[in-house]
Design a protein that fits this description.
Layout (H helix, E strand, L loop, with lengths): L1 H6 L11 H13 L1 H9 L3 H17 L2 H16 L4 H13 L4 H9 L7 H4 L2 H4 L2 H8 L4 H9 L3 H8 L7 H8 L4 E2 L1 H12 L11 E2 L2 H11 L2 H14 L1 H11 L10 H8 L4 H9 L3 H9 L3 H13 L5 H20 L14
Antiparallel strand pairs: 1-2
Length: 346
């Protein structure tokens, strides 16, 4: 009974006459059901109950009560001296927590959105994968890499599947170093491949992430093809090959190892390094390790994680990369089996 009485206790923003509840109810009625529902999700049950009481009181008082409550609300806001410039800064900060910096700038500074490389390629980007592969098959690897880097990773992978195997190492190598594309280059490619230009290309550089697309293509390739492509790249650019190879299997991918393989791998790992890596790992990878350790070892690991203070992100990433490297080496020696997302298991 004491708890029930506590629930009915008025909230600080509601006076004895319930005017605060009526004003909030009137405001939400004016904003509509969708906005009201989103506001309710941020409130406690007690707050929603108080607003419901305010809505009943508005109904009893008649239609004029809503406009009177809204006018009172507006008057109180004016008396509070709301700072418009401060409001803009507040909204900008809130948006920055939910949106990308470029999107925030477009929204608040009326900056026109920049066109994406895929859009600038026009019908080249919308052609079916088979037709686009037939056209690109006659082009130089650097041209193919430019086009594929400007497409989505999934679409680029579909086109790559239809290109000759002998061309793929050169294409992937060039894609992996593409960072920016000048609009005039895209225009030339578009003209060369389609014979017509549908829109003018705006000035400025266009960012593309060819490395992400290259990795997606490699991930979709059988293990033998991955090894062949990376070996060909390694002959000319060993650092690039190592970077691509390390990103094909990450620390988080350890969750897909069998329990037996992870137990075997842990014999080669430095548990201090594992602790640092798990500091920035997902709950799933942490649970995977704990499940494959003895009760005593798992307890010690959890104690070490709890006692560990803040760790540099670079240290966590280095530890995770080293463990992934050990896993790759173990797989190459046939001691464990790496299961990729695209692998079908029986």
């Amino acid at each position: 009974m004491a708890d029930a009485a506590k629930v009915e206790e008025p909230l600080p923003w509601i006076d004895k006459a319930g005017n605060g509840a009526k004003r909030v109810a009137a405001l939400l009625l004016g904003l509509g059901p969708e906005v009201a529902a989103n506001v309710f999700r941020q409130m406690s049950e007690l707050e929603v109950r108080q607003i419901a009481l305010g809505a009943r009181e508005l109904k009893r008082m008649g239609p004029s009560a809503i406009s009177e409550s809204l006018n009172t609300f507006i008057g109180s806001m004016q008396e509070a001296g709301v700072d418009v410039l401060g409001g803009d800064a507040m909204f900008r900060k809130m948006a920055g927590e939910l949106m990308a910096p470029e999107a925030v700038k477009r929204t608040f500074d009326a900056t026109p959105p920049s066109h994406q490389p895929e859009e600038l390629l026009g019908i080249v980007a919308t052609a079916d994968a088979e037709s686009l592969a037939m056209i690109l098959n006659r082009e130089q690897p650097q041209t193919i890499a430019l086009v594929l880097s400007s497409l989505t990773a999934e679409r680029a992978a579909l086109v790559m599947d239809r290109l000759p195997l002998a061309m793929r190492p050169q294409i992937v190598r060039r894609m992996a170093v593409v960072e920016a594309v000048a609009p005039e280059v895209l225009r030339e490619v578009r003209l060369a491949l389609t014979g017509e230009l549908q829109s003018l290309v705006s000035e400025g550089m266009r960012k593309v992430d060819g490395r992400v697309a290259a990795l997606e293509i490699l991930r979709r390739s059988p293990a033998a093809q991955q090894t062949e492509i990376l070996a060909a790249i390694e002959r000319d650019e060993p650092n690039l090959a190592n970077d691509l190879r390390s990103k094909l299997f990450t620390f988080e991918d350890l969750t897909r190892l069998s329990d037996r393989d992870l137990q075997s791998l842990m014999k080669d790992l430095d548990m201090k390094q594992v602790t640092v890596a798990l500091k920035g790992g997902s709950p799933e990878v942490k649970e995977k390790f704990l499940k494959n350790m003895s009760s005593r070892a798992a307890e010690l690991l959890e104690d070490d994680l709890s006692a560990m203070g803040p760790v540099k992100l670079s240290d966590v990433e280095a530890a995770q990369a080293e463990i992934a490297k050990v896993a790759i080496e173990a797989a190459e020696k046939g001691r464990i089996t790496i299961v990729r997302p695209t692998d079908k298991m029986l």
